[in-house]
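Team,

Forwarding the record for the chain on the shared tracking sheet. I've put the sequence and predicted structure together so nobody has to dig through attachments.
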Amino acid sequence: MEERIARFVAGLRASGVRVSIAESRDAWEAITYLGVIDKSAFRLALRSTLIKESADFETFDELFPLYFGIDAPPLMNPQAELSPDEQALLNEALEAFAGDLSELLNWLLSGQGPTEEELRDLADQAGLKHADSPYQARWYARRMQRLLGWERLPELLEMLWEWLAERGMDPQQIEQLKRQVAENMEALRGQLERFAGQRIEENRVEQYHERRQTAHDLMQRPFNSLSETEMDVLREQVRRLAARLRSRAALRQKRATQGKLDAKSTLRANLKYGGVPMELRLKRRRLKPKLVVLLDVSTSMRSVSEFFLRLMYELGDQVQKTHSFAFIDHLEDVTHDMRTLRPDAAVEAVLDRLPAGYYNTDLGSSLSQFIADHLATVDRRTTVIVLGDGRNNHNNPRLDALDTIKRRARRVIWMNPEYPAQWGTGDSDMLLYAPLCDDVHTVRNLQQLTDAIDAILG
C-alpha cells in the first residue's frame, strides 16, 4: 500500500497538482491512524491531506480509482453451483468451441480473471506504452478487447449455450450461467479500462520525471538558444519554481515577524529604569516588496520577459503591489492585464500590445514617458525593476530620467540577459545605466532569473 500511495502522489504531481513532501507525510500518518478498510475514510484522508486547491479536486477524483480501484477482479465463479457432471459437460464444451478464445472464456467462466502480468502483456500488445493522455484509456481498453477476440464472443457463447442445452443441462442452470458470464464481461471490461488508465498514468509519471531532468538541464541554457519545444518544457516548470520561491519568502516573513533585538531602541526605552534594560524592543521588517516593473519586450528580450511575467504572476501574493509597464519604442501600462488575466492570457495580451520589431527599441524615450505619466507609482518603499539589455539603438539614454527614478525609489534593480563583457558594445548603454542601479543581475537562463527574483523577494 505504501508503494501504491507513493505512485498516486507521483501521478498527482505529473498531472500538475502541487504536493509537498510534508503533505505526503501527513497523508501517510492519516492513513496509519484511520486504516484502509473503510474506503470512503481512506479516500477523504488522502484528499484532505494532499489537495490544497479546489481546482485540483477533479484531478484527484479522476486518479483515485485508477490507483485504488483495481484490486482483485470482481468476477464471480459461474461454476461454483454446478454439479461435477455439469462441470465436466462445460469443460467438454470449452474444448470443443473455445479455440483461440480459450483464455478469455476461462476468465469469464472461472471467475479468476487476468493476472497483473497477463494484463501488462496485453497492454504492451495494444501499444499502451505510447499513450500519454487519460482520455485515451477507453480507446486502449477497446483495443485490448479486440486483441482478446471480444467481438466474436457473443456468437461463441450462443453456440456454447445451445450445445449445453442439447446435451441436457438444466435450462435454469444455463440461464444462471448466462447472467453470471454477462456480469463478468461487464466487470472485465471495467477492469481493462481502469488498467489502461493506470498504465497511462504510469507513462505520464515517467514522462514527468524525464521532463524534470530535462528541465533541470534546460534551466542552465541561455534563453536565446532554446527551441519552442524546449521553451514549452520550461513553461511547465514555472509553477513549481514559483512554489519554491513562495515557500522561501513565507519562511523569511515568519522570521521577520519574530523580529530581532533593536539595541538602541531598547536602551532609550529603558532609561526610565536607570539604564537597566527591562523592556526589549525588536526590529520588524516589512518583507513584501512594492514593485514597479519596466519590461523590454523587443525581439531580443521577448523570451526573458515572458518567463519573468510568468514567475511574477505566480508570485503575486508575495508582493504588496506591482505596477507593470512594457516598452519597445514607447511605454504601455500592462498592470491591469497582469492582475485580471490568467498567466498564458496575460503574457499573450502584453506581447500582443507591443508587436515585436527589429532595431526600434527606444529605452530613453520610454523612461521619459514613465517620468511624465507614471512617476507617482514610485515612492521610498518601491523597488523598481528594469528588465532589458540596455540597448537603445543609439538614441538618447535619458540617464537623467533613471536618476530621477532612483532618487524616489527604495532601490533600482536591473536584470540583463547579456554577458557583462557585452555591455558598452555597439548600441549598448548598459555601462552608463549600471552605476545608477543598486544591483545588476545577469539573467541569461531560467535558473539565473529565478535566483534574481528570489533575491528581490528577500
